[in-house]
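Task 17 of the worksheet. Students: predict the tertiary structure of the chain below and write it out as structure tokens. Keep your answer in the requested format; marks are given for formatting as well as content.
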Amino acid sequence: MFPSMLDHYQIQLTRMLEAEQYGEAKELLRFLLQCQGEDERHYEEWDSLLTWLDMAFPENGTADEGTSLLAVKHEEENEASIREQLLNPPDQDEAYVNQVLYIMQHHPMIDQQLLALERAAYIQSPDINDSIEKWLLTEPVHPVVQFKALQCLRKRGVTGSLTIERLGETVQLELDETPLSMEDFPEPVVRILERTAQAAEVDDPTLPHFAGELWKESLQFLYGTAAYHWMLREDEDTVDIFAAALHLTLLLTVYGSANDDDIRDTYGISEGLRFRYEQACRALRQVAVLQQSGDDDPQS
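Model answer:
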């Protein structure tokens, strides 16, 4: 599992426990226990926590589904409101703006840069737009941070095009077309995930969720590149090729191994499509290498 994915799931687990979402927490723990190649200490902690949750909060299935959904929706709305208040403080003096910009541009931890960009989306000073664009044009920036910066500019209503370096390619991007969520991506991109989720669910019902997380992370790296434009083709072969590549990467990430022949059979990857399939696999593998290496300067 990529280090960033492990950190993401640990944070997600903590939030589930804090929100008393014990059923979801147990499902996540069962998934983590299936993953291969992690530190033995992690497995012991997950197994111990799962055992305790099973004893303290046994499944009973008696909750009213409608009431539960309303409660979840209300909780999500409250969390979103609280988060916006934290990201958008009423006092935004020059010192605050300078601090946000400094963290965004210079902090050694990507998570802190991403948080700074979330704050930057709410900063009222119009000069922030030029600062972000200049930074993207003149400095080597991690692809995930680049993508977050593009989202920030769109949230701030910035339009026009921007030409930057991404994964060694020079790409021209329309700022007002930057996807803010998975639903904002073009239809072929969404269909690739749906195709993978449908096939992966047959073997493990927890895999579609993690396929979504992996696909989202991959898109943050690949957005605007040649590989991204390739996956936008409308033909079914392209959807199958990238769905198969995503499925293979998912199994390698979660289990540490995968049967390439089985994957190609599942998605109908014929010999005529083999070369294009391997190209798609290489594109996703490039993302995996950058994720695992924690490379702060993938542009070099």
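Marker's comment: The first strand starts at residue 161 and ends at 166. The chain has three domains: 3-56, 94-177, 182-293.
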